Amino acid sequence: MNQLDTKSQAWSALFSEPMSDLVKRYTSSVFFDKRLWQADIAGSLAHAEMLAAQKIISKDDLASIERGMAQIKVDIESGAFEWKLDLEDVHLNIEARLTTLVGDAGKRLHTGRSRNDQVATDVRLWLRSEIDLIVDLLAALQATLVLIAEKNTDTILPGFTHLQVAQPVSFGHHMLAYVEMFARDAERMQDVRKRVNRLPLGSAALAGTSYPLDRERVAKTLGMVDERGAPQVCQNSLDAVSDRDFAIEFAAAASLVMIHTSRLSEELIIWMSQNFGFIQIGDAFTTGSSIMPQKKNPDVPELARGKTGRVVGHLMGLITLMKGQPLAYNKDNQEDKEPLFDTVDTIKETLRIFSEMMASVTIKPEAMERAALKGYATATDLADYMTKKGLPFRDAHETVAKAVKYAIAQGVDLSALSLETLKTFNAHIEADVFDCLSLRGSLEARSTLGGTAPAQVRMQIARHKERLKI
Ligand code: ARG
Ligand 1, closest atom to CA 337? Predict the structure, then answer.
């Protein structure tokens, strides 16, 4: 039996007492970090290839390691691989199995390496591929929202500030606000990726190693290169084994993704309530009530809103994990994995379900328009109209306030007041005032860059379609 496979102690003959079962369970991470197995094997193969190129191990040893790892891959994929709690983590499990399969060559793999630089490398490799998937999911969600926007450039709903009717906006414009958020999220993920994609391996336990390693070669093999192909290697061994900034940055970027889906969720929930009735979410994405037969509940957005707390919690967990750790590696760092894994799972599932759910939403333009008409949403337009006729804006604002007060007392919209009545508030008002008092007139007037005028919205849609290649 090889040394790593014994029940007593995985690392050395120094220990005279076996580890207690309680401690084994407390310190073991294999049942969650086995998820890193592909990255672990990739990192080991790149390390072994370099060891052979540097003549630190023989070509035969490399061939044996490659053969053993190929077998391990098959076994893990088929479920035949036996993960052992006694072997603490993914790294020791795979290494022990390799040694069982190929003998001494397996024991030589750990030359010039420590689990400290190994785990930091594995987490980075794993996170890099997850970031790539997340960027794709963000693009898919943006595309869904752009297509909804395209169908609704001219759909009018009340825009709110303080959740009070403010000014009419285009529903397409409203959707594009979220496209901007998710576009920034994708940008942030790409930026975090640059700092994730750096190689700690070769730092060994903390101080570097006496073997003539070629770290840049390993970086290139693992694709840890910048956009010009230059290898990206962590330049300080103490920092390399202990740095988890990249995980914190990722959790922060992920928190923003969740915060954006949570804001959208809140709007969907409000819009779907009977008092608004602006939308209906497809039946496949709503749930019924076990007691109230009439109910359709927006469980998916509610859960997304709830899960935001969980991801933000992981960010707090990771930040707190790092606070107060002396250089270099400490076992505390093993606690980075579960929050990271759960963050990745949560945002991937949320983004996926949001793309599908948003495509299922039915829009009710009449209800939106009715609501926009209720709240004197064109009052600013009347003030702007009078300002353009020469009245200072502050005076126009005051005059319109009086007109709104009068209209409220009559129970009618501004556009329902007669020209004569309007003239009593300001003599310069002419018949053309009614163009700007309509919701459509108000919408079309807001044609500044980034404004809600349908012409602007169409321009933005074209930009997004080109950017997203849809
Ligand atoms: N399972 C460990 C982790 O996740 C691997 C590194 C262990 N290193 C050590 N010196 N005990 O951090």
Answer: 4
Mean pLDDT (the chain) is: 95
Q: Is the CB of 29 under 6 A from ligand 1?
A: yes
Q: Looking at the domain that runs over 370-468, which CATH code has it been given?
A: 1.10.40.30
Q: How many residues does the chain have?
A: 470
90 lines ligand 1 (CB under 6 A): no
CA separation for the pair 64, 60 (Å, rounded): 6
Q: Identify which of 44, 88, 89, 121 to mutate to test ligand 1's pocket (most ligand atoms within 8 A of the CB).
A: 89
Q: How far apart (Å, rounded) are the C-alpha atoms in residues 267 and 107?
A: 58
* Domain covering 116-149+170-365 in this structure, CATH number: 1.20.200.10
Assign domain 12-111 to its CATH architecture. Answer: Orthogonal Bundle (1.10)
When pLDDT is cut at 50, 70 and 90, the band that residue 289 belongs to is confident
To test the ligand 1 pocket, which listed residue (35, 83, 92, 116) has its Cβ within 8 A of the most ligand atoms?
116
Could you tell me the residue ranges of all domains in the chain? Answer: 12-111, 116-149+170-365, 370-468
Dump pLDDT digits (tens) for 47-63: 999 999 999 999 999 99
Reported as a single tens digit per residue, the pLDDT across 294-315 is 888 999 999 999 999 999 999 9
Which numbered atom of ligand 1 lies nearest the CA of 89? Answer: 1
For residue 10, say if its preceding peptide bond is cis, omega within 30 degrees of 0. Answer: no
- The secondary structure of residue 376, as a DSSP letter, is T
pTM over 0.85: yes
Query: CB–CB of 351/137 below 8 Å?
Result: yes
